[in-house]
Design brief:
- The protein is α/β, with parallel strands linked by helices and 652 residues long.
- The protein folds into three domains: 335 residues, ANL, N-terminal domain (Rossmann fold, 3-Layer(aba) Sandwich); 142 residues, 3-Layer(aba) Sandwich (Rossmann fold), CATH 3.40.50.980; 127 residues, 2-Layer Sandwich (GMP Synthetase, Chain A, domain 3), CATH 3.30.300.
- A seven-stranded mixed sheet has the order 5-4-17-16-18-19-20. A five-stranded parallel sheet has the order 7-6-8-11-12, sandwiched between helices.
- β30, α19 and β31 form a beta-alpha-beta unit.
- α3 packs across α4 and α8 packs parallel to α9.
- It is globular, with a radius of gyration of 24 Å.
- The mean pLDDT is 95.
- InterPro entries: Acac_CoA_synth, ACAS_N, AMP-bd_C_sf, AMP-binding_CS, AMP-dep_synth/lig_dom, ANL_N_sf.
- GO terms for molecular function: acetoacetate-CoA ligase activity; ATP binding.
- Keywords: ATP-binding, Ligase, Nucleotide-binding.
- This is Acetoacetate--CoA ligase.
Length: 652
């Protein structure tokens, strides 16, 4: 019988904010909820009371009591939250004003800058004043083409303080990818870095920025952060009619920020779909829903407190960056690392955990798999004494990676695999410091989230694979897509499969422990002989083999059916021999079914992925079938797609 990889002690459970919240609910509502399963069931059945309790527990400040907490239409997505009251997002993230470190910005070159909470507020106040003087106010858009550093967060908070809307892309995005995104939302201000560093190289951005500004006629003010080019001058970026100012010349830190109250559903962030099947969708997230969902997830599910230091390895083009920024609302210290996680070696981020006393570390499943492949054993080489939680997302975390963390990184910690996404800027299923960790499983459904797994008949199932759905409205549901006034695009994206029910597009399974297993994206599910196969089931087996660094599987139309084709990226110097192919097929057949065994196995030099690191099965499938890939600019390595075109092996 399987045993849990980690189980918190009674003392650990009692010390968590999750358990304190359970006791808070019991006292406030005269209940006797004894465990998380009962707490979750109550939070879904009594969503108004639950979200009011979150407001109370985390001291969320509204201008006045709401006239109605939740008003729902006959079906989702029709609903409104917290009517007739207002709040400000930045105000909650800047409540702490002492000398405690708020932001610790670490560059790949070893540079280190620290802003205390008091200094952060002073920077926001100064930038806020200059943005207001530039004509920025309620509802205007501010865009950023920036690395993961403190100036980006100052910009975010200054925008939110004014009631403006923030949107960001990381500097590794291509020109077309940036203009496809920002061109739709028409920002008045663009904040951009002159250069950035990655893998030991400095990448200059002047030419790219000039082209972007030329494509964005709405931009009235361009603010250049020198960053990796300290000699940058404003004249180097002259393009279009926009005024150009260097960051240090645009504002002076000082004073106290003011906060414009906004309605609960006022646009806070605009995020973007991956854009690999067309122009990216602009997903608009509201102020109140984002704040409440984030304090719940960070405070309860992650157990982030004022004494913690949080670091999520991310870029400003991934929603985990926005999620990490909300850690300021809990008064924690945030470590911002910008650069390659493997430069100069595989220990770079593990070293950072020790150097900065990081207690909560977030990363991608691919990073943990790569760390294991590199032979890293941090348990033997690092202290990790403050580390209490590891978070993982971006793709399903394999059983092997779960076991690697507890075997070779640290035994006494909570490993939380999480899933949600840009669509909701948060999670459907995630971690929990009061529950055991089971190999391959996300620990629990999020509080207030009516998450189920449905079969093709629309019936909830347990221990069976199906579609991950959410059956009731939640605060972090996007308020709209940009330029979708009747909401038809939003409904078609999330509510067409099961009318009135949110379908996330994940192929999943609910476990007997109350956890969730993600088997891959629904639109990438393979269907040989009419049997649905999640790609993650194949990757888990294939990537056990030491010769294989990474793999991607697609379904190829073949002989009036579908056959599984597997592409593999191998270690340097390794070739795809018949013996290795046999090993791959054998390990898949032994641990899954004969249906999972690929008809073709093909070696490639690289595998295409999005800028946030997700492999793109749909794009590869389109190339193999000689269909267009509409937006390669959203890929980190678009040239890798050419490896999959016109392969003679695929015609036999």
């Amino acid at each position: 019988m399987q045993e849990a990889l980690w189980t918190p002690s009674p003392e650990q459970v009692a010390a968590t904010q999750m358990d304190a919240f359970r006791r808070h609910i019991n006292q406030a509502h005269h209940l006797d909820l004894g465990d998380y399963a009962q707490l979750h069931a109550w939070s879904v059945a009594h969503r108004e009371s639950f979200w009011l309790a979150i407001v109370d527990f985390f001291a969320v400040h509204f201008s006045q009591a709401a006239s109605e907490v939740l008003s729902e239409g006959s079906t989702m997505p029709s609903a409104s939250w917290y009517k007739d009251t207002e709040l400000n997002f930045a105000e909650h993230l800047l409540r702490r004003r002492d000398d405690h470190p708020a932001l610790i910005a670490i560059g790949e070159d070893g540079s280190r800058e620290v802003l205390s909470y008091a200094q952060l507020a002073a920077h926001v106040a100064g930038l806020q004043k200059s943005l207001a003087a530039a004509g920025i106010g309620f509802g205007d858009r501010i865009a950023a083409f920036m690395p993961n550093t403190w100036q980006t967060i100052v910009g975010t908070l200054a925008a939110a303080s004014l009631g403006a809307t923030w949107s960001s892309c990381s500097p590794d995005f291509g020109t077309q990818g940036v203009s496809d995104r920002f061109g739709q939302i028409e920002p008045k201000v663009l904040i951009a870095c002159a250069a950035y560093r990655y893998a030991g190289k400095t990448i200059a951005l002047a030419d790219k920025i000039k082209e972007i500004v030329t494509r964005l006629p709405s931009v009235e003010q361009l603010v250049i952060v020198p960053y990796a080019n300290p000699d940058a001058e404003a004249k180097d970026f002259k393009a279009g009619h926009a005024k150009i100012t260097l960051w240090d010349d645009f504002y002076q830190a000082g004073g106290e920020p003011t906060f414009t109250p906004v309605p609960f559903a006022h646009p806070l962030y605009i995020m973007y779909s991956s854009g690999t099947t067309g122009v990216p969708k602009c997903i608009v997230h509201g102020t109140g829903g984002t704040l409440l969902q984030h304090v719940k997830e960070l405070g309860l599910h992650t157990d982030l407190t004022m004494g913690d230091t949080l670091c999520y390895y991310t870029t400003c083009g991934w929603m985990m960056w926005n999620w990490m920024v909300s850690g300021l609302a809990l008064g924690a210290s945030i470590v911002l690392f910008d650069g390659s996680p493997f430069h100069p070696n595989a220990d770079r981020l593990i070293d950072l955990i020790d150097q900065e006393n990081i207690s909560i570390f977030g990363t991608s499943a691919k990073y943990l798999a790569a760390l294991e492949k590199a032979g890293a054993k941090p348990k033997q080489t690092h202290r990790l004494e403050h580390l209490k939680t590891i978070l993982s997302t971006g793709s399903p975390l394999s059983h092997e990676s779960f076991e690697y963390v507890y075997r070779d990184i640290k035994q006494n910690l909570c490993l939380s695999s999480i899933t949600g996404g840009t669509d909701i800027i948060s999670c459907f299923a995630l971690g929990n410091p009061v529950l055991p960790v089971w190999s391959g499983e996300l620990q629990c459904k999020g509080l207030g989230m009516a998450v189920e797994v449905w079969n093709d008949a629309g019936q909830p199932v347990i221990s069976e694979k199906g579609e991950l759905v959410c059956t009731r409205h939640f605060t972090a549901m996007p308020i709209s897509f940009w330029n979708d006034p009747d909401g038809e695009k939003l409904k078609a994206t999330y509510f067409s499969q099961y009318p009135g029910i949110w379908a996330q597009g994940d192929y999943a399974e609910e476990t007997i422990h109350g956890g969730v297993i993600i088997h891959g994206r629904s639109d990438a599910v393979l269907n040989p002989g009419g049997v649905r196969i999640g790609t993650a089931e194949i990757y888990r087996q294939v990537e056990k083999l030491p010769e294989i660094l990474e793999s991607i599987a697609i379904g190829q139309d073949w002989d009036n059916d579908v056959r599984v084709v597997l592409f593999v990226r191998l270690r340097v110097g390794v070739e795809l021999s018949d013996a290795l192919q046999n090993s791959i097929r054998q390990i898949i057949r032994s641990n899954t079914t004969s249906r999972h065994v690929p008809a073709k196995i093909i070696q490639v030099r690289d595998i295409p992925r999005t800028i946030s690191g997700k492999i793109v099965e749909l794009a590869v499938r389109n190339v193999v079938h000689d269909r267009p890939v509409k937006n390669t600019d959203s890929l980190a390595n678009p040239e890798a797609l050419e490896e999959f075109r016109n392969r003679a092996e695929l015609a036999t």
